[in-house]
Amino acid sequence: MSIREISMIIDGAAVTSSSGEWRDVVNPATQQVVARVPFCSLDEVDRAIDSARDAFVSWRKVPLAKRMRIMLKLQALVREHTGELAALISEEHGKTLPDAEGEVGRGLEVIEHACSITSLQMGEVAENAASEVDVYTLNQPLGVGAGITAFNFPVMLPCFMFPMAIATGNCFVLKPSEQDPSSTMRLVELALEAGVPAGVLNVVHGGPEVANRLCEHPDIKAVSFIGSTQVGTQIYRRAGETGKRCQAMMGAKNHCVVMPDANRSQSINNLLGSAFGAAGQRCMANSVVVLVGEARQWLEDIVAGAQGMKVGPGTDRQADLGPLVSPQAKARVESLIADGEREGAKLLVDGRNCKVEGYPEGNFVGPTVFSGVTADMTVYREEIFGPVLCVVEVETLDEAIAFINANPNGNGTSIFTSSGWVARRFETHIDVGQVGINVPIPVPVAWFSFTGSRGSKLGDLGPNGKQAIQFWTQTKTVTARWFEPENVSSGINSTISL
């Protein structure tokens, strides 16, 4: 099998980095090296930014209708190549093919929303706001934007960034994760094939040094980040210090409340899928279930469901979850499981020492379930980013709300109930930015904004929806009055009355 050599994209062309530092991209089910990715030099990063800056001069003038047609072509190409993109995701990330196909679908949804740019980028107008004075706003592009994405959604996360950024008239430099870059690169190639002009969309690779350069370069006007809290906090600070607009979607500890009046089978099936799908490697995973009242009696069914889930390589369509992305990730998750045992949580299902026939080197951790978890335990405080479910038991809905609100994160939460009153009380009093009601992962459709809150988000504006338009444009307000020309033979009849 040949090993892919990952290129940069600069000025509309694939460019081989001259960097002396390259990293292996490894299939997490087999440990086979499938690609090599460069850690670009700062000169190469600057070249990509320069290309975007130069392209902005003409791209900002391209009519909205033409940008719309490029987005329409891109969505058609992504739909056509869903299988290819999903296979690349599965090979380098490890998630199952059905899960990877679902990821492409969520990314496609954002591109489809960007196809509505002709109606999304409109300003406001007040005719005759004062005597013969009109006031109106223009939503104009910022210039060059940058995106820095995590490994866990190598297609969806870039789609949260560059389609809307370039549709609004900006140019873009993307730095994908070095752990699984191939599907991101294929996505960008499809964008170029769709008609995105040279320089409008560029790609560089690397680690903190490259990310810092994007945050500090004077020609970058806005930075979008999705990843860990530690890195996101640094990105937000560095971008802010140089006067850039920044959005940072960061870590989480999401809770799923199960009420005793909920549909039992549906609740448990949805809970297991949200906790263990993608091997728990998603910021919207419901990694804590709060069983309320008599719903505590459902714990046995949750355990049985977790024990019945199939672990396998991503190519196995019957598998419920695949491997973790790296041996380091596996070691960290297993260490946190050990911490949970040591601190007194009851280990009901142990996913360590998970063996998958034919894949002895895979980074597999099976579904793991702890009960008796308290807020001071490491397994509760840390975002595990693995297939580990913590079970908390309370007596009342209000106790569940108070428990969740005491957590510093606010990415997402869900409740399963048959009561409209309970659901409304929950959505009103919960201090979390995204709420699901009988929906396990409350990521809204792309024409609504991603609205994580508190410790899970820095910046006022999130990706997608109306907030994305606000983030990637600068509002310019115009106040205008026009006077009748003096001493000009214009043929205008000044005696017209209305």
Automatic annotation (TrEMBL):
GO molecular function: methylmalonate-semialdehyde dehydrogenase (acylating, NAD) activity
GO BP annotations, alphabetical order: L-valine catabolic process; thymine catabolic process
First-level EC class: oxidoreductase
Region forming the signal peptide: none
Presence of the UniProt keyword Oxidoreductase in the record: yes
Entries under SUPFAM superfamilies matching the protein: ALDH-like
One Pfam family cited in the UniProt record for this chain: Aldedh
Top-level taxon of origin: Bacteria
Keyword terms of this UniProt record: NAD, Oxidoreductase
Entry similarity comment: Belongs to the aldehyde dehydrogenase family.
Listed name of the protein: methylmalonate-semialdehyde dehydrogenase (CoA acylating)
Gene source species: Halomonas huangheensis
Organism taxonomic ancestry: Bacteria, Pseudomonadati, Pseudomonadota, Gammaproteobacteria, Oceanospirillales
